[in-house]
Amino acid sequence: MKLCVALDMASKEANLALARELVGLDVWLKVGLRAYLRDGAKFIEELKGVADFRVFLDLKLYDIPNTMADAAEVIAKVGADMINLHASSGARAMRTVMSRLNALPSRPLVLAVSALTSFDESEFSAVYNENLAAAVRKFSVMSYEAGLDGMVCSVLESRLIKNATSADFLTLTPGVRPFGESANDQKRVADLNAAKKQGSDFIVVGRPIYESIEPREICERILEKI
Ligand code: C5P
After folding, report:
1. Confidence of residue 27 (pLDDT cuts 50, 70, 90)
2. In whole angstroms, how far apart are CA 80 and each of 48, 95, 114, 119?
3. With DSSP H G I counted as helix, E B as strand and the rest as coil, what are the percentages for the chain, rounded to 5?
4. pLDDT for 117 beyond 90
């Protein structure tokens, strides 16, 4: 299991300072929409300049197939090691993205978002008119068959996804509160023990790390435990 630290702080300087504090630890860094829109591709380069970090660019693409493939190709070339898109963009969009990326000399890992971890059951069915677990299973099989590498999902769905696809199909789980910290706006949260038990390949942790006074120490405690 790998720890992926969300760089969701309010400024580029704060995100870079956090990255510098984590030098030498075996962590991935997650760059989200705000940081990417504000700081651009250059920020990925700068992070890679701080140390040999692996970067997950969390832009959650959702558009028509050709536009998604165009965007995926650009972000692959920016140097991200992992990217993602919404499974609800559909099988054809996912296949189009994968065939475009597979034509490159090397490509990032590609994950599909099943259901946002901020959704509870009723919020999810208000949008998708479907039961959450059934929809997650359907999206996972679709993504697996389209040739993606794994899913973004809650810890609570990690095992279900592997059972429906393959043990090698990756799961990346946000909404992890390692030692039972506050859930904030997340609805489907779980702690480290649950993430381990459910077979998460990557856990994403944001606020419990960057809002703490000793972010490096929290990361070290998490890494010890995983
Ligand atoms: O602060 P916290 O640990 O809740 O941060 C979780 C991070 O993971 C945020 O950057 C959020 O955008 C992202 N994420 C999520 N749920 C998903 C996909 C990504 O919380 N399904």
Report:
1. very high
2. 10, 20, 21, 27
3. 50, 20, 35
4. no
Atom of ligand 1 nearest to the CA of 205: 3
Query: Measuring from each residue's beta carbon to the nearest atom of ligand 1, which residues come in under 6 Å?
Result: 6, 8, 32, 58, 113, 116-117, 152, 174-175, 184, 186, 204-207
DSSP single-letter state for residue 81:
S
Expressed in angstroms and rounded, the spacing between residue 105 Cα and the centre of ligand 1 is 30
Confidence of residue 118 (pLDDT cuts 50, 70, 90): confident
Residue nearest to atom 3 of ligand 1 (CA): 206
Extract the runs of DSSP E, i.e. beta strands, from 69-217.
Answer: 82-86, 109-113, 150-152, 170-173, 202-205
pLDDT digits (tens, 9 = 90+) for 143-173: 999 999 999 999 999 999 999 999 999 999 9
What's the 174 CA to ligand 1 centre distance in angstroms?
5
d(CA 226, CA 224): 6
Query: Which residues have a Cβ under 8 Å from the Cβ of 138 and sit 6 or more positions away?
Result: 130
Confidence of residue 116 (pLDDT cuts 50, 70, 90): confident
Q: Give me the active site residues, please.
A: 60
